[in-house]
Automatic annotation (TrEMBL):
Function: Involved in protein export. Acts as a chaperone by maintaining the newly synthesized protein in an open conformation. Functions as a peptidyl-prolyl cis-trans isomerase.
MF-aspect GO terms: peptidyl-prolyl cis-trans isomerase activity
UniProt EC number: 5.2.1.8
Endpoints of the signal sequence: none
Catalyzed reactions: [protein]-peptidylproline (omega=180) = [protein]-peptidylproline (omega=0)
Enzyme class name: isomerase
Gene3D superfamilies the UniProt entry points to: 3.10.50.40, Trigger factor ribosome-binding domain, Trigger factor, C-terminal domain
Family per similarity comment: Belongs to the FKBP-type PPIase family. Tig subfamily.
Annotated PPIase FKBP-type domain residues: 161-249
InterPro entries, per the entry: PPIase_dom_sf, PPIase_FKBP_dom, Trig_fac, Trigger_fac_C, Trigger_fac_C_sf, Trigger_fac_ribosome-bd_bac, Trigger_fac_ribosome-bd_sf, Trigger_fact/SurA_dom_sf
Keywords: Cell cycle, Cell division, Chaperone, Cytoplasm, Isomerase, Rotamase
The name this protein goes by in its record: Trigger factor
Subcellular location: Cytoplasm
Amino acid sequence: MQVSIETTSGLERRMTVGVPASEVDTAVNTKVKETARRVRIDGFRPGKVPVSVVKQRFGAGIRAEVLEEVVRNHYFKAITEEKVMPAGNPNIEFTKDVAGEDVEFIATFEVFPEIELAGFDGFEFEKSVAEITDADVETMLENLQKQRANYKEVKRKSKEGDRVKIDFAGKVDGELFEGGSAEGQSVTLGSGQMIPGFESGIEGMKAGETKTIDVTFPEDYGNKELAGKAAQFDITVHEVAEAELPEMNEEFFAAFGADVKDVDAFRVEVRSNMEREAKNALQGKLKNDVIDKLLEVNTLDVPKALVDDEIGRLKQQAMQQFGGGADMDPNTLPNELFQDQAERRTKVGLIMNEIVNKAEIKADDALVKAYIEEQASVYQDPAQVIEYYNNNAEMLNQVKAVVVENAAIDHILAESKVTDVKVGYEDAIKSNAAQG
């Protein structure tokens, strides 16, 4: 076997492999004889079909099968001998393929980039710790009550907290715009579900009243054509209903998965959930800050094959998230929607893998066990969830990957300058939302 490799551009390699004719022809002849023993052809007894007949009828197909196996074997042998690490499958092109002569093929592929990691000793991070106050807990209890509220129609002016049923029609520069009108829309005043100024503009209106309000779309509004523009909305109120908050009893507690008997016990559970939520949010923010820093100081090319694979995974996730059925093809989604995210994920994966290898980080069994128990603790039957993880190899591998990544982040932080900062519950939760 003769092998030569050249760099065509960046991470792309072009490997030429030559295979002696004798090796290919011997494999073809062996395959022909095997076929002759088992093939059935009219006019010949089983096992007595002449080799010449088999070659005439099936020779081209047999040679193609043999070449496929020869290419596969010699490709893997070549990359092993040449010590190259392809990223993705190769593109194979035959340059010599004539019976009786040496075979030659070219494998074009990308390789993993060589990464020279920047040191961590100059990194600086703020590690936020959430303080959950009694007032935070009481606010959460009120919000939980509002989530389970019943609404009763009233004949007074609307106020914050009321739910109104309205028709509205929005205009920009005097013209109706797409998506700016609705009939029978329910809006809870003060909920923030509409753009700033919309809900407050309805406060004080009664059922049967019509009013025009002036608002301005936020600069970061999703529709770029409307972002930052002034608008007028013609609003008609059909109904005003006030919230009737439910009593905090065992039925109420059970609705939120809490097996408790009184408000004090429920308050303890709510605080515990808030602490867990804030902790996870702040850990996520710190992890994101570390990753941003790694990307900032480590520049690298990424193999297109790996990015394309990541785009495929993101498409699948998008289909699942938005309820795409099995008959929907993820490939109908344009690659451009996922390109930036896929490139970032691929870069992060390559950098983290290098850190894990150099620091010899492993999935510690105790950490894996602790992670699974923490995830299971939010369910009514934690033991059942733990058993599910432990008996599902795919889920267990995902947990191990998370544990290894978290250990890598801890390794970086241990070599960085980290400053503790106290934040409130709301700021903690907002930090998580800001990560997208």
